[in-house]
Design a protein that fits this description.
The complex is a heterodimer of chains A (about 575) and B (about 800). Chain A has about 575 residues and is of the alpha+beta class. Chain A contains 18 helices and 17 strands. Chain A is elongated, with a radius of gyration of 35 Å. Chain B is mainly α. Chain B is flat. In chain B, about 30% of the residues are buried. Classes of the chains: A alpha+beta (about 575), B mainly alpha (about 800). At the A-B interface, helix 3, helix 9, helix 10, helix 11 and helix 12 of A face helix 1, helix 16, helix 17, helix 18 and helix 20 of B.
Amino acid sequence: MIKKLLSFFFIGLLNVFFFWIAFFLFNNAYYVLGALFLVLMFLIDFFIFNPKGYPYRYVAPALVLLTVLVIYPIYFTVKTAFTNYGTGHYMSKEEAIERLLYDPVYTYEIENESVEYKVFVAYDGLTPIYNDFLILFKIEGNLFLAEKPIPVRKKGKDVLLSESLLVPIESSTYQLVPWSEELTEIRMITSEEKTYRAFYSPKEEFLRLNGSMFKSRIAQFHLQRSDFVHPNGNKYALRIDRTGEWNFLRIERLYRLDLVQTLENDKPRTRLVVVNNRTNKPLIEREGSFYDVNEKNEEVYLIGYIDFVGWKNFLRILRDPRISGPFFKIFAWTFFWALFSVVFSLAVGLPFALVLNDPKLKGRNIYRTLLIIPWAIPVFISALVWRNGLLNESYGVINKFLLPALKLPAIRWMNDPFWARVGVLLVNVWLTYPYMMTISLGALQGIPYELYEAAMIDGAGKFRRFTGITFPLLMTVIAPLLVSSFAFSFNNFTIIYLITAGGPPIPGSTTPTGYTDILISYVYKLAFQAGTGQDFGLAAAISILIFFLVGGISYINFRFSGVFEEVGR
Amino acid sequence: MKLHVHAILIFLIIVILFPTVWVVTTSLRRDEAAFSTDLFSSRLTLQNYVDLIVQEQNVPVLVKELQKLISRVSPYDKLTLSRAQEKASELLKKLRNYLNESNSRNDAAKKSYEALVKIFEANADRAKQSTLNDLKQIEKSVFETLNELKINEEELTFILYEVLSKEKFNSQLEKILRSNVETIVGFKIEDEQSYTLALDRLRGVYEELGGASLKDLEALSTQLSSISSEIEALRKALQPLERSILEAQLLLKGDVLTELRSLTGAVEALNRMKDSLARTTAKSIFPIDDTAFLQSLQSVAAKLRNASNSLQGFEDLLEVRKTTESLSEKLLELTYVDQQRKNLKVYADMVKTYEEIRPRLERICDDLGRLLERYSYEVSKLRELNNSILMKESDLQQLKQRTVELQRKKESLEVSLTEERAWLQLILFENDLKVRLSTVEAIKSLSRTDLTRYSALLTWLRNFANSYERNDRTKESVQKAINNLRWIEDYRTFTSRFENYAKNYEQTVKEFEQVMVDFEKICNDLLALSHSGTFVTSEHLTRLLDLVKLDFVNKVRADLAVVSRRAGTLMKLSLFPEAQKLFRDVDKQLFRIDQIWKEKMKHYFGWWVLNSIVVSTIVALITTFVCATAAYPFSRMRFVGRRYGILSFLLIQMFPGVIFMIAIYNLLNFLGKFVPFLGIDTIGGLALAYLTNIAYNVYLIKGFYDLIPASLEEAAIVDGATKFQSFYMIVLPLARPILVVVFLLTFIGTFNEYVVARIVLQNVRNYTYALGLQSFAVGPYETEWGLFTAAALLGMLPMVILFLAMQRYLVSGLTRGAVKE
């Protein structure tokens, strides 16, 4: 009984948790992910309460992980492929508008006269407490007191805007000591519990010494995105004025939201636009960016947001010569890279397997263990060791010792396109041949000896036995593994990136492409190397193409190796 | 048969595993492996490992800690005064220990050094003898080579004249070559006169052989350059002309032509008026005075005709010419009016209208005339210039040809002169050699001055070897001498640098000690001051730090490094076997001294390995648990989606991981704003990003579950267990092998993963081991191979051992499905 209660309680908790997550996601504009969570919640409830859903209960945790970490990313990637997400377009339109409305950059100063101010800080003995402070303002002859600004607009944990109300000194609960109209004479401000001592004023010699502390401890943390609001609505903020000093100036926001009537398809519609407060002109929205118009009637770029661009990214791959050119080159190299990796490593591994297959060979276990070591070493270590110690152009062992001993000239491993490709292939073969050797060994052991005996009786020589018996039977066994190795090499980003980082750059391409780049590393560079601007949209488009390619190969592989049937068994 | 298989296998294994061997040996080396000329070194140390695992607090670190203590910067900002004073005295004690160690090592190094100097001094004679032998050998081979050279007398004369023409009588060079000159000219040279005579004779042969052409060559080249500059100037003059011609053309074809055309239009209209005269009858009231009219017509037409004639030659201006001509004709036409028609009103209108356009016509005539004058003048000038340029260029060509001929002659001459030039070089060398031999004879020991002499000898030999082009016996013996002298050079550098180093070391360390003693006296007071609230820094400590960072580095370390390197090379000298041990000792002491004073960069190696282990364990645990649970129904139950479920997930997981990263980066970014430990640059976030390896593991585990007979569970159910209980009490324990395999596989996979970590982690302290190692290999650490290989080895070993222990399971899993039974 208790168990049942407990389990109901647990299920209820789970439901509430999922629902809360979904709600939270909806609030932050992650609509699809929120919907997925809702679906998951319903599914899990179905699994638990419906007896037919019993098998699925086991799959539930895996399903949750898969949804969040595989299905959602796939959806996200597909969606991104149709947008312009990237440099200049990092935030959603709502976020961009929020920036325009609240960020202190988008304000303008109304009068160039600064207002007098003095900062008072609470002390603990001799040390100031920097986050407990008051600022006294003198505006048009009246004294106003401001407390520490409170955040009024937040996005998650990021504070977009804080505000502090200016209270006339007469109506505040604080006392000035000594009471005076001049700021320079006021030494302390007291309230019932605390005393604030004068800390910084730009006008007084002695207090000016604290300028750096004011800037680094108070201004930087609390006053950066803060408005000080006068009872009549004027706003003041800390800005650098014409002399280069920090002062409080009266500011106003540059942009506001407004409703505008437009005629679309002969029907009047109201639309929300962002309007410039000074010129009263609405901002131009084009191709995922906001533009303002300045006095010379020129367009000024303001801020960009993520926008839907349709098939543009895919078309760019095919049509834009600066992208399609390198793209197809990279594609060709990727294909040959995977192919040669497989073929060469098999060519190295198979002979070893043939030799080690002989049970009469003494110490074959030792040999096998030693030969497997390149596969056991983590890829990144081998890549870095090869790159730094052996293939290094000036100091590497090959260039410094091996080649001079053979009287050959030094090879420019990293800078010559051909040799860079040879270098990465060499390292990949070094890394992969033990795998080929192992699977060949495993497969060879499955070939019954009687076949060989029969062949020998028929008079077949060693070579004939190999080509007639060993190789065909071997191929049937390891063919699927070779294909999966091909697919793996096709996407083997780590090794390419660590050895040549894509290799000597292909001249004349606008996107960062290199001679040893494979599709994956090209995508990575597009997405994460912000040299020429990150273009997530294009990266996502290319990855979808890669997926279809590799998925197609694997699918064919599965079909032909009959794996489908086996799973169904 | 077996033996050669073994031999080949062993050879191949050595070749294949060479990189790993290299990693091990490089991590143990004391010298800078990247810059060394040796593949392996015998100077070993474990310092790299020590640096990675336990970073020692050497002198710079201690001084910085003292600074932090005095200024009450974290981690010392919360200490009480007494604790701070304790810590200060502790640090000072350590500092003193280091100083003592450094000094004692310095003393030991100095002792070994002195012993070395003694040994070398004792053997100074041996060095001298061997050098003398080498020099005598050189002498002999020079002599032999001189005899071998086939000298042509004429060419010899050429050379001799070339060299001696600038020399005075009785100069150094002249004296050496005097005998040869005497042999050639046939008389003795005893004074200026005979010398000049001899020179004349030589000159004759010189010029005959080709000296004259050399002079011609020079003269030619000056001529060439002067003509070239003339052509330059002419071309320059061309430019403004061409421009002005172009302008004129533009004017003519533009403004002028337009004006002409419009005028033509007007005149045509007048002509039509004229034609209409025949049809009108209205007579004019006043008499029409058309003399001026006719005159003007004639004159303008004439001018226009002239203009069009002078435009005859210019094809570009055909349009203009035609228009001018036609205008002229049309104007003339206007004069052909019948007398009786001349009193018609229309005629009067004609005349009046003509008056309107007359000024324009006259102006255009003037313009045309002016323009054309200028134009033809400039065109003819242009033609002139072009002609002279052409002429000069052909001159240039001729001169160039001659130059080429002469050059060829000169080259062939040079070729035939090589032997003679070598002879000259050798003769001079032989002479110098005699001088050098006597210098070496005078060397008594291996003192500083003597070493300088050896060094000068070496430089001289090197210069000769570089300039001497033949590859004969002489060169060989010179090379041999150079090689044999090299150790003396190294020894010289060794001693001079060591003395320098010792001097600077003592000076720097003495000052350091003084400042430290001073500081010790006031340390407690400073601490008390700092604890009362003021921000205190210590001048002494700043000076100490400067001493370490600037003085020690600039004055002592440079010499120290050179001494160590030379000691390394000299260690291998087989000349003095007892010296080897002493060199080794010097190297060891100096290395340790360097380590004590060297400012080292902070590594986070320990943090990296810890991060990797934590992440890998978390990921492996969660993955194993989730996959073990998820694989169960696929093996035991029937439900929708069973057949294709895993495969489709496998296919979906083929999606390139890098691309997920955009989405996962985005997700982690968003998550990090609300859940701090799951964001970007956190271990939690990284672990989350790794939890995607589900499909393959489910497939693996499911295969294993298939092998466990279902009867066991059925028995349990009969006994009253629920399905779930039978799962986790029976199946899971039995499946332990595969679960361990999955755990280990995931652990190894996550540990070795690079891409995702690269994207998610940003702060160096948070890096995983894979990322950290990569930052070791690029950037400021790129050639610190010792550290890099040590770090690589430390991370490599556990993974390799784990992997090797597990490979049996892997192989069976991979080929299991393939071997059809």
